[in-house]
Amino acid sequence: MNPMKEYLIKIRNIANRILYKNIAKPIFFRIDPEKVHDAIIFLGKLLGSNRVTRFAVSMPFAYSNRKLEQDILGIKFKNPIGLAAGFDKNADIVKLLPSIGFGYAEVGSVTGEPCDGNPKPRLWRLKKSKGLVVYYGLKSDGCEKIAEKLKKEKFNIPIGISVAKTNCRLTADKNEGIRDYVKAFSALKDIGEYITINISCPNAFGGQPFTRAEDLDDLLTEIEKVPCDKPVFLKLAPDLNVKELNNIIDICGKHRISGFICSNLTKDRKNEEIKKHLKDADVKTVGGISGRPVRNLSTKLIKYIYRETNGRYVIIGCGGVFSAEDAYEKIKAGASLIQLITGMIFEGPQLISEINQGLVVLLEKDGYKNISQAVGES
Q: How far apart are CA 199 and CA 218, in angstroms?
């Protein structure tokens, strides 16, 4: 790309960062975080509704460079930075996301039945730790309504659909839980470019039973009875021990799993890795933690799976990405793609452009012509 154009984009990003940090963020952070989230979704839906507003939004955020383009599992990604599941729960802003600069996005998690989620309050900021405590409990309009909304949509970036079991007492029973997953999977299998099975939500009734090898085997066996020719990912918790992780990898080797998302929220407050990153006195006892505190846990999980499987699976790195250096660390650990939410909340929407531009600089510094060459090189 033209050096002058790169320079101007860098100046633009700096200006956007200053505006966000000094005007928008102080206002947002004085308001209940769920109310802010709902307002952003409403605004995003409005801005994404027509070409004029989508183009207007793209002007301060767009960035592209061929060094960031990849073809992964037959899907073309213009850049490796995606929106993680959990932000656009009901696929309300998929039309706007390309304008903000995302190379792809994952919506949901979508559940078999409509679910109001856990009681409020259910979202808190950890301002000192640069994290969030999330206790939504898989709030979802349900697979039927979301499938109906999306079935005729044409997406400008690859869209992944995250599915999970409905958060209720009934699905705490293994067989009912499997039935619920299968319902959501069946309803959404023909939408988007890939589908993720979320077995790691820390906030659902009955815990995370499908992290147990025998239960996961039963779940994947039933899901594979549904005809589907798309890549299927498994979203993992960062709190798994080595034995649990090895068992999951072994089970996935027997099924049609294309890759892993590393990772979901952590709920283990006793983990020394988490304790040293948590600086807030009022860390809630409920919910999972995102952001900076999860960064190292996520990267360690990526590196372990990549090395243990000799790079056999596609890994999407998620957790604590606040800069190009954070993203690059995960890529060199073995991630081909990156997801984020919390970093954008703390740093601003220009972060996606900043990361992508910064990645190009890091790639050139290391002598790589394409980002795929850096995957697993640490």
A: 13
The model's pLDDT over 293-309, given as tens digits with 9 standing for 90+, comes to: 999 999 999 999 999 99
Q: What pLDDT shows up at residue 275? A: 87
**Alpha carbon distance 264, 66 (integer Å):** 30
The verdict on pTM exceeding 0.90 is yes
β-bridge partners, 350: none
> Which whole number is the average pLDDT over 307-323?
97
Separation of first and last alpha carbons in the chain: 27
The residues near 126 (Cβ < 8 Å, ≥ 6 apart) are 132, 133, 278, 279, 280, 283, 289, 291, 293
CA-CA distance, 356 to 193, in Å (whole number)?
22
Please tell me whether residue 234 adopts helix, strand or coil conformation: strand
Structure tokens at 76: 């073309």
Ordered DSSP codes for 274-333? HHTT---S---SSSEEEEGGGHHHHHHHHHHHHHHTTT-SEEEEES---SHHHHHHHHHH
CA-derived radius of gyration, the chain: 19
> Which pLDDT value is given to residue 1?
66
